[in-house]
Each structure stands twice: as structure tokens, then as C-alpha cells.
Amino acid sequence: MPSRRSGTPAFVLLLLVISLSFCTSSSELDSRWAAKKLEMRDKVREMFYHAYENYMTYAFPHDELKPLTKSYTDSLSELGNLKLEHLPTDYSGSALTLIESLSSLAFLFHSLVIMGNNTEFERAVGWLSKNLSFDVDARVNLFECNIRVLGGLVSAHILASDSKNRLIQGSYDNELLGLAEDLGRRFLPAFDTPTGLPYAWVNLKYGVMEGETTETSTSGCGSLILEMGALSRLTGDPRYEFAALRALRKLWSMRSSLNLFGTTLDVMTGEWIEHSSGIGAGVDSFYEYLVKAHILFGKDDYWRMFQSAYLAVQKYFRHGSWYHEADMRSGRATYWQLTSLQAFWPGLQAKVSDCNIINQVLVGDVRAANSSHREFFSVWEKYGVLPERYLLDYQTVHPTEKYYPLRPELAESTFYLYHATKDPFYIEVGEAIVNSLNFYTKVEGGFASIRDVTTMQREDHQHSFFLAETCKYLYLLFDDSFLAGRNYVFTTEGHPLPVLSDWHDRLPEAYIPSNWTYVKSRMPTERASAMSLQVCPATSLNLGEGQQPIESVCHVVDARGDHRCLRDEECGVDATSCRSRSCSIAGYCGLWLLV
Ligand code: DMJ
């Protein structure tokens, strides 16, 4: 007995020692991660500053910096896939990189603002207010000008006018909004087509030029709603939101029976030109804007569109962790290629999972996002940066698209996935990205793009999205304190727009297209996949004790609950294999071809 009595405290003591040492090591670990994050945050701030300062010294007020020759390029009028036939005559830059830097200045230097030190945001706003003019004979790409300039101005206006941010110490009289409105007005002639689909190019002074190309991309028509919608909400002029909405609705009506979209189309006829598409170039932000428009404006229609479009992506483009391209008509795979732009997709999946506004959690999709992210990162590690195009079937870089123009997409996904999972693995990924950028792309005059990832030969261009997005997402990965207590949606160019209940109001009746429904359905309360109506019980995953079942994202239910059918189309998609089910001779849905 005595031995028992004395044994118990010893045992308890032992437990205490074990648990204390565990606590110490886990808190040590936490503080090591915290220190790592601070160190990385400061490195990213330095990177931004180096890029920004060189731009201001050698390129401002032109559009973008040429870091190798320490000169500039007026690139806004040259952006996009469709090439200029003649250059504008009196176009001399729009301080594009400065506009793109505004929200990053607010985020990255916020702690300095609090200490009353930083006036750079205010200085930039002051300069733009006085000097920026859109009354120039410049043919600009509508999509690029919208996401970079309109988005940059609208977002910075909101940041500037929110006194909580303390970004403006002097006076601010909505000058950025005035500029944004002027630009928005200059966009409107582009929408004057029989279909409502906008031209890809518009001359800021003269509207659409004679003989202008009628070819545009899916993103060019379907990724305008955030910026133009925000402009309407801020100015009270519904024309911008209406034009963007009309184009989006027309585009939506052009989907195939498989709920797929092509990549390019004709704005006059509304016919598809390129039927093959994926989640990368020419289409990417269209998907992104469906879900973000739902978050920003609260309409269920956007969410429903996103659900169908997302499901079709998972069904026809996904191959394990990779995404290939497919023909919108048949769903048949066309190109087995990874593109650098696709790397935003895991971030979008994580963002949706994090979206408690819609009270649904894409549980299964964070897992899918994580495995795709790892694949993208493995290609990044293979080359040191992400090549523009990588041939999946040959496991090698595309022979002509070997470049890396400082794109943000992998950093963006890394930030969202860290936010969604808090897994320190993503901090390590962020660190690797920062180190690569500093090692391969940093030069005396800024950050240079990579022309060829196999030789790491540099190119004389520092794109404005390096400041708007790449640096911002890396910074937010290591320090998201600016986001605390704020609820933002980031545009495709990384410009924050706040989620405001006011913006969830209806548009004035006169501007509601007749078949556009605003009826809000009751939100499901249980945690489920965002494919809420199309999920199936988890059957395929080995669950550890106490683990939540993870639902398959590719499952599509059969048309009838009793699984009876007349045609293959009435059968859905199998949750485990992601294969389409077919209708048997006896009239039942199943994976009959596999039996
Ligand atoms: C950015 O301009 C935007 O993110 C756009 O949607 C596509 N990608 C570039 C940067 O890679």
C-alpha cells in the first residue's frame, strides 16, 4: 500500500513532466514559426520596396519598369493576347504600377502608418488625383484595364475613405472615385454590341475603333462584375454593373450542355471561336468572379452558376491532382498541360472553403486543393520558378512558353491554403518562393521576369502585378494582421474590396433583367461540401477516429433518386472514381462499362 501511495504522485509527476515538456516543445515550435513569419514578412516588405522604389526612380509616371536597363514601358495599351495593329499616338503612360501598388502600400506599410510614419499611400493618391487623365488616344485592353486600373482605383478609394485605416492624414475628396468613374464611362462603348458582350479593346478617347477585332476571351466578358459592380455601388450609377452583368449572363447562356465554356468568342455573333478550354489563360478569372461576385453582392444566382461551372471543371478538366484542357462540346481532353495561371485554382477552392458568409464548407475540396498545390509546387521546385506551360505527358517545359513573368498565382494559393489550414507547410512554401524570387529575379534595378526557366535567362520587365499581387499575397501569408476584423474579397488582380451588407441590396427594379432572379433560398446550416446538393456520403476515404467524413467533390447525383433512367445523361458521376455513370439496358444508372 505505501508503495502505491508513493507511486501515484510519482506517476502524476511523470505525466506532468511529459506534458510540460510537450507543452514547452509545442509552444517553442509556435514561437519558432512566429519568428519565421516575422522574418519572412520583413523580407517581403524589402522586396516590395525594392521593386517600388526602382519603379518610382526609373519608370514613373510610365506604366511599368524595365529593371535591367532601368527604363520604362507603357504597357497598358499593349496588354492582352490580341496584338495591336497600330500604336496610339499620344499615349504616354498611366502610372500603372503606382495605381497597382496602392492597396499593397496600405497593407504592407500599415504598421508604419499606425506609428504615423508612412505617407507614401497618401503621396501616391495626391499625385494621381492631380495628374492622372484618361482622356488619351489610347487603345487599351478592356479586361486588363478593368482589373488593374479600375480595380486599383476603386479599391484604393475605399481604403482611403475608411478613416479606421488612417491612410490619409490630410484631406481626401473622393478624387480616386472620380477618376474611376471617368474610366468606367470610357468603357461603356465597348459593350455596345448586339450581344452585350464587350469588345476586347476600346480607345479611351474615341471608343471602339473602326475595324476593331470582334474576338475576345471568356475572361474578357466574364470578369468585369466585381470592379464595375463596385463602381456602380459607389457612384449610384447602375450602368456599369448592368453592362457587366448583361455580358456575364450572355456568356452564361453560351455554355455547352456539359456546362463548359470555350476560350475565345465573337462579340458580334456570340459564337465560340476556340472550343477548347481549361482553368488557365483566357478563362481563369471567369470562374473566380462567379464565386467572388456572390460573396460581394450576395446574389444566389452567382453561387448557382459557380456550382455548376465548378462541378463541370472537376468532372471534365481534373485528372488526379492535375487539370488539363478539354473541348466544351464533348468534354474530351485536348491539352495535357499545366500552366502557371492555373495555380490560382487551389487558392480559389480554399477561399470558398473559408467562406462562412455562405455557410458552406468545401471540406473535400481543401484536400483536392492541397494535392494540386503540392503538384504546382513540385514543378516550381524542379525549375526554381513556375514555367508558363509544362507538358504533363512529357514531364517537361513547353518548347516555346518557358517564361516566368513574376506571376503571383502560386503565392496566392499558398496564402489561401495557409489561411484555411494553418499548416506550417505553407509557410515553408512561401519561404521557398521568396528565396527563389530573390535569388533568380532580383537585380539592382528591381525584379526581372525570367525568359527561360531552363537557363534562368532574365527578361527586362517588372510587371505591375508583381507589386499588386505577388508581394501582397506573400506578405499576407506571413502577416495578415491588416485583415483582422475586416472582410475583403480580393479581385483577380489582388485589389481588396470590402464585403458590405449595403452591397447585398437589390439593384433598382428598372435595371433588373426580367429573367434574373433575386430570390434568396435558405442556406443549409450543416457543414457540407459546397457542392451541397451533389455530395454523397463519404465511402471512399479511410477515416481516422474522430475525423469528419470528407465528401467527394466530383459526385453528381442521378436524375432520379431510385437510379432508374432512360438515357446516360440522366445518370450522374460516381463519387469514388469521378467517372460518368451510364444507363443499363434494364434502365438503371451505374458504372456499367467497368463491370
Ligand atoms: C494578373 O494580371 C491577374 O491575376 C489575372 O487574372 C491573370 N494573371 C495575372 C498575373 O499572372
Automatic annotation (TrEMBL):
GO terms for biological process: carbohydrate metabolic process; endoplasmic reticulum mannose trimming. One of its GO terms (molecular function) is mannosyl-oligosaccharide 1,2-alpha-mannosidase activity. Ca(2+) binds at T492. It holds the Pfam family Glyco_hydro_47. The active site is at E144, D284, E388, E409. InterPro entries: 6hp_glycosidase-like_sf, EDEM1/2/3, Glyco_hydro_47, Seven-hairpin_glycosidases. GO terms for cellular component: endoplasmic reticulum quality control compartment; membrane. It comes from the Eukaryota. Its cofactor is Ca(2+). Keywords: Calcium, Endoplasmic reticulum, Glycoprotein, Glycosidase, Hydrolase, Metal-binding, Signal. It is found in: Endoplasmic reticulum. Its EC number is 3.2.1.-. The keyword Metal-binding applies. Residues 1-26 form the signal peptide. The keyword Ligase does not apply. It is an enzyme of class 3 (hydrolase). Belongs to the glycosyl hydrolase 47 family. PANTHER family: ER DEGRADATION-ENHANCING ALPHA-MANNOSIDASE-LIKE PROTEIN 1, ER DEGRADATION-ENHANCING ALPHA-MANNOSIDASE-LIKE PROTEIN 2. This is alpha-1,2-Mannosidase. The lineage of its organism: Eukaryota, Viridiplantae, Streptophyta, Embryophyta, Tracheophyta.
